[in-house]
Automatic annotation (TrEMBL):
It comes from Penstemon davidsonii. It holds the Pfam family Hexokinase_1. It catalyses: a D-hexose + ATP = a D-hexose 6-phosphate + ADP + H(+); D-fructose + ATP = D-fructose 6-phosphate + ADP + H(+). Its EC number is 2.7.1.-. Keywords: ATP-binding, Glycolysis, Kinase, Nucleotide-binding, Transferase. Belongs to the hexokinase family. This is Phosphotransferase. Residues 11-209 form the Hexokinase N-terminal domain. Pathway: Carbohydrate degradation; glycolysis; D-glyceraldehyde 3-phosphate and glycerone phosphate from D-glucose: step 1/4; Carbohydrate metabolism; hexose metabolism. Residues 216-456 form the Hexokinase C-terminal domain.
Amino acid sequence: SGKWAKAEAILRELEDECWASTSKLRQVADAMAEEMHAGLASDGGSKLKMLISYIDKLPKGDENGVFYALDLGGTNFRVMRVQLGGKEGVINKESDQVSIPPHLMVGSSHELFDFIAAALAKFIAKEGEDFNLPHGRKRELGFTFSFPVRQLSLASGTLIKWTKGFFIEDAVGQDIVEELKKAMERVGLDMSVTALINDTVGTLARGKYNNPNVIAAVILGTGTNAAYVEKIHAIPKWQGPTPKSGETVINMEWGSFRSSHLPLTEYDQSLDSESLNPGEQIFEKIISGMYLGEIVRRVLYRMAKEASFFGDTIPPNLKIPFILRTPVVSAMHHDISPDLKVVGSKLNDILEVPDSSLEMRKTIVEICDIVASRGARLAAAGIVGILKKLGRDPVKEGEKQQRSVIALDGGLFEHYTKFRNCLESALKELLGEAADNIVVELSNDGSGIGAALLAASHSQYL
Ligand code: ADP
């Protein structure tokens, strides 16, 4: 029928516009490498912030002792104790998760940090004798703070703005390590804050601890970001003395990357313009878990409206932004039952569409595939951009290729198998022969263990 032909036309147009061919991916990778150069040259030189982390010693894998982590990045925070046993690795770890009462997310800085310091003190108070530190030595803490921060040194940084439902006006512009330290003093907790880090940097540390060939980390979760190890002499905007290692970690904030080579559609344009941060985080908006489901919803909405895909009326729930979550897209995409019953039941549960034909279900799986594949392939192109910047992508004649490992973390990468497989095959496609020496590896819990590892590698007692 005419309606079905129209739906088919919308689907083919989507496929066409989302298709990231090998040559397009190469252009994206080149643009990423170029923007990296520009962002390293000067602050504001690129959409990529290329933030200097002040981490100049990543863990080697032989660290010893007990270290702590504090992870604040959402409605929960965690305190963690990690016991490192030299070559034996992580011997023991314990943690407490505490949810933040909503009124503290919008109250005063004093109240929030008092609450956190009290939880930390409680965690330490119940420690056994085994954790007594050598005499005269303070406990050391790595602080993962996943909000935008202008870092001033390894253990200081000012809060640029709150996100994710927090709104504590008097903390903006303040050094958040100072805020934490003052609160620790108020509760009588004597502890050093050794490093202030971002979760991507923690993932890099976590990965490198397990595997010395790790050179970069990428997070693919609700949002997306990347960090990598850079030579100081390749950072024109670096000021001050060069650290002994000659290197530092750069937090790329790659979610804000954009390029004319990105395959964008009308769905992306409207998603962006109706978002809380129009014009920003364009790469993130086509790749990450927060948005993939929403893109699929927008395609389905157009099909409902213009091709009566769901019948004469548009299912009311389909009009609700973000009602279709990425884990649901993933579940539908992985449906292998002959009648696609997972797709059918999701349509029923979420969109309240009780009857769907097999043809409709197949079309929906195809939309999921198109949207997820585009995201995965572009993430792969981003990784190749980093490898290009570091000169690790080509196979050089007569040279033994260095091994490069990328540490990956985040729910999207970990749980969305087809996304992950697509990313890995796009990497092979782009790297050719060099792919033999380049691998991606899952690296869990950078914001916890990674932070403790960075407290260890930057310990004041070394
Ligand atoms: P965050 O990025 O929020 O700190 P995670 O790394 O755990 O935390 O990522 C959670 C995100 O991962 C979710 O918002 C969701 O988009 C995505 N995700 C989780 N599970 C799945 C899944 N099964 N399939 C696809 N995406 C998933």
